[in-house]
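Whiteboard transcription, Tuesday session. T.W. wrote the structure tokens on the left side:
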């Protein structure tokens, strides 16, 4: 197969770098190695990989700055892999534009699952046409009609308020990705909104009550505690 997805792996610890690259190659991807931030930025522009896997703690610069640099000109999918486990580090990376965040240590299965999801997003992001044609977003039994501003579960209208609808469509447009509290609040209530999460949480609880069979065990909207929410994508 010569049409492999190419993945740039940026990691200064040689063992981890080799482990990630071997895992990717065993799963049919082409891996490109970078040890430093400088190398990473150079390879991103010269190889234009399909996906970047990025360690935050690099010898010459913070991985966060690479995300910021990259997002100035590219929507290339990017997964952060880091030993930093704090919620604020995750929030920071996601807000800077990372698509996903994986905490070390992680298993090969999990890595490959995240890679697959991130690559799928890069394709769905390009297929906005699909939404333009049908005017609908569909996740399992949930259908969101963007033109009519109505959401259905199994074709039954779930009667969302305007705010609830806005929140759900934001999540659906990037299903499978964690959207941070801050991102959701700014996109629903505006950039100057007071960024407390209370109102957001109340609205999310209401959406869950309307779309989930059992809101205590959600099948659609998942909470990433201290970080944000994501909608199931399959
Ligand atoms: Ca490191």
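and on the right, the sequence the group agreed on:
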């Amino acid at each position: 197969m010569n049409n492999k997805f190419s993945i740039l792996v940026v990691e200064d610890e040689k063992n981890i770098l080799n482990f990630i690259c071997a895992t990717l190659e065993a799963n049919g991807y082409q891996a490109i190695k970078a040890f430093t931030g400088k190398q990473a930025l150079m390879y991103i522009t010269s190889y234009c990989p399909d996906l970047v896997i990025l360690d935050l703690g690099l010898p010459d610069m913070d991985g966060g700055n690479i995300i910021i640099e990259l997002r100035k000109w590219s929507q290339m999918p990017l997964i952060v892999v880091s030993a930093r486990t704090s919620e604020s580090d995750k929030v920071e990376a996601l807000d800077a534009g990372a698509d996903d965040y994986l905490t070390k240590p992680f298993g090969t299965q999990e890595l490959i699952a995240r890679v697959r999801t991130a690559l799928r997003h890069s394709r769905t992001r390009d297929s906005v046409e699909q939404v333009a044609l049908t005017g609908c977003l569909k996740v399992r039994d949930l259908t969101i009609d963007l033109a009519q501003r109505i959401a259905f579960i199994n074709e039954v209208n779930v009667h969302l308020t305007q705010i609830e609808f806005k929140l759900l469509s934001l999540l659906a447009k990037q299903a499978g990705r964690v959207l941070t509290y801050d991102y959701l609040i700014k996109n629903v209530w505006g950039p100057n909104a007071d960024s407390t999460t209370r109102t957001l949480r109340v609205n999310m609880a209401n959406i869950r009550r309307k779309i989930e069979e059992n809101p205590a065990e959600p099948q659609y909207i998942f909470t990433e505690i201290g970080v944000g929410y994501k909608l199931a994508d399959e």
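Someone added at the bottom: The longest helix spans residues 108-126.
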